[in-house]
Write a structure and sequence with these properties.
Helix content is about 75%, strand content about 0%. The chain is mainly alpha-helical and about 500 residues long. Helix 1 packs parallel to helix 4, helix 6 runs antiparallel to helix 13 and helix 13 packs parallel to helix 15.
């Protein structure tokens, strides 16, 4: 009998069938990841409406940063209070952020709404994946996490397509309102399937650690976003941000070493697979979000594709991601072997980033599709196998924190990488644009380019392509480092039974 038909033996899920539990958390994961990707194909429309090309990455970065901060906090709260209540709160915060973003009339309000969305989504993603570890033994988690990765991939496909369709038929504000019915459905399914966990004692919350972690992550992302672009690297603001990041990190480590219930227990960093897979996830997150952010822009501005058509070109990437994630999970479940899976996938990611670095205005669209498919193959197994490998390595009482760490480090990579790549792209674009074209750079989109004289169009499109080359080359270098680092994974035996959860 398939392991997915077993009865969950722990208090949190009672006697509910595992299939229904996985369906519930898959619905939650779908809602969170849809909100993350639906905005990608609407970016040019948002830029044109709000005239804010220089701040374009903040629409993505605010979401990723907030998700990064909330992920470890939510993971810890899930360990202490149970997964259900944390998921329910996360959904409501996520929907509130969707409403704020949908009603936004300027970039500041839009970024604030995206940040609120991210606070909810960070908890939804990590706690959903932690539920898998609650109800399935290690040997079966690879396939289940592969299914979760497939849900993530499917929503990532639907998101850009839906975003492009809504922008064409209505306006960009409606891409945020579409999250409301999905969130309501997730709340209903969750309420029917998961049962609340009984908390036997009053846990201690590491508020100071959470504040210091938020300060560190915020400073690091602001530094990567503003340094070298808005402010020179040696200027007072960038030096202050660097100092804040260092001080917050050192203080966070000191607080965690003494906390009763540390947000991120330091002994976890002595576990080889915890460190290796989180480092790999950081690098892969950087490359993944870089590709998702900049490819629709390239297709719409350089190739003249519509928002819907640019979303369609993410389909090959997601096909590779879903297929490789599911295949890797099944192989892990069938053989119990997983060490070489992240090595092979990150090798494919290197190839994908190198291929994308060759994009020009003359590149055929079918080649773009092939390049994205290869990129997707390189991402999928890291998501599914990485989470399962970390869950197999950490103590059972730290499953929520361990799962959160996998997503946190990947989101840190996405936050810092998107900011850094955005700064790199903006600087490259500014230097490559012909004299006199910089004035219209803030509102550069497909329609504004189409109104330029033919000679100016060619110059701008070439500049756009050239500015992307260093972005993808830098991503290829990170993917290569991730490939080499993956060789250090220690293949621990995968358990075929659920571990006993200690009393709280």
């Amino acid at each position: 009998m398939s392991s997915l038909t077993l009865k969950a033996p722990i208090t949190e899920t009672g006697d509910q069938p595992v299939r229904l539990i996985l369906a519930a958390v898959a619905t939650v994961l779908f809602a969170a990841s849809l909100g993350q990707t639906v905005v990608s194909t609407a970016m040019p429309a948002i830029v044109g409406d709000l005239d804010a090309m220089d701040h374009i990455t903040w629409v993505i970065t605010a979401y990723l940063l907030a998700s990064t901060v909330s992920a470890p906090i939510s993971g810890k709260l899930g360990d202490l209070y149970g997964r259900k209540i944390v998921l329910q709160c996360g959904i409501m915060v996520f929907m509130a952020g969707s409403i704020v973003a949908g009603l936004a009339w300027n970039m500041g309000l839009l970024v604030a709404g995206r940040a609120l969305q991210g606070l909810g989504a960070g908890g939804l993603i990590v706690v959903s994946m932690a539920v898998v570890a609650d109800v399935l033994p290690s040997r079966d988690r690879g396939k289940a996490q592969g299914i979760m990765g497939s849900v993530f991939g499917i929503s990532t496909v639907i998101g850009p397509l839906l975003g492009g369709f809504i922008v064409q038929k209505f306006n960009w504000h409606w891409i945020f309102f579409v999250n409301i019915p999905v969130g309501v459905m997730a709340l209903i399914v969750l309420g029917l399937v998961l049962r609340p966990q009984k908390v036997r004692a009053t846990p201690s919350i590491d508020y100071l650690g959470a504040a210091l972690l938020a300060a560190f992550l915020s400073s690091a992302v602001l530094l990567s976003n503003l340094g070298g672009a808005t402010y020179a690297w040696g200027s007072a603001p960038t030096l202050a941000l660097g100092a804040c990041a260092c001080i917050a990190l050192l203080a966070f480590v000191a607080v965690e070493a003494r906390a009763t219930e540390p947000l991120l227990p330091l002994p976890l960093f002595r576990i080889n697979n915890f460190v290796v897979m989180n480092s790999v996830g950081f690098m892969v997150g950087t490359t993944m979000f870089g590709a998702i952010t900049f490819l629709p822009l390239f297709l719409q501005v350089v190739k003249g594709a519509s928002p819907t058509a640019s979303g369609l070109f993410l389909l090959p990437m997601m096909a590779g991601l879903i297929g490789s994630s599911f295949a890797a999970g099944r192989r892990m479940t069938r053989t119990g072997r997983y060490k070489m899976l992240p090595v092979a996938s990150t090798g494919a990611l290197v190839a994908g980033m190198l291929l994308l670095s060759t994009l020009t205005s003359a590149t055929p669209l079918w080649q773009v599709a092939v390049f994205m498919f290869v990129t997707g193959i390189g991402i999928g197994p890291v998501i599914s196998v990485g989470v399962a490998a970390i869950q197999n390595a950490v103590p059972v009482h730290s499953l929520g924190v361990g799962t959160a760490s996998a997503n946190m480090f990947r989101l840190i990579g996405g936050s810092i990488g998107t900011s850094a790549f955005g700064a790199m792209f903006s600087a490259g674009m500014a230097s490559a644009l012909p004299d006199g074209a910089e004035a219209g750079f803030g509102a550069l989109d497909a329609s504004s380019v189409a109104q330029m004289p033919p000679q100016a169009q060619d110059a701008v499109l070439d500049a756009f392509s050239q500015a992307l080359h260093p972005v993808f080359l830098a991503a290829a270098a990170l993917a290569l480092a991730a490939c080499l680092l993956s060789l250090l994974v220690i293949e621990r035996p995968l358990a075929t039974t659920l571990p006993t959860r200690p009393d709280r």
